[in-house]
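Take one record.
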Amino acid sequence: IFLLPAAFYIKAIGLDFGRFRLSLFGPGHLLLLISGLVSLTTGSVLIDFWLTGGETLSASYDLWGVFISKNDGSAGDVLYLILAYAALPAFCEEFVFRGLLISEYERRSTTSAVALSSLFFALLHFDVERFPVYFFAGVILAIVLYATRSLLAAMLIHFCNNMIGIFGRPYIQTL
């Protein structure tokens, strides 16, 4: 939905792709990545539970409360869930929010870049009730970006968090 407009914007203003921090993260960042994933997952679940009492921790995964996908265990369904609900959102959202928006807003300050990219990330999810969950996630992903100097690290953490959301919901709900 927003990747093409972002690409047109990048082309129109002639942005340098070096500003997107597309370099690989180093093996020394492994502990940081694990800490970021644990912080993102547990923090999001705790905030969500505080806000909704666990109502949103259903056994099925939904995208913006509209597209609901159940997993019947077939290889096709599992692959679809991974691509449509974990990989594609992680890549596209991180490219736009942590790549493009942060690189544009950090001209003002790093704080405003983190705050504004997190705000727009939360607004994108169209869920007023869970706004703090998405804002928190945006902040954690921005911290991972800055700590590793790698957009790919933020994409990986986002992807792993989505995977936990997709396949770990029944376990989180039970817990």
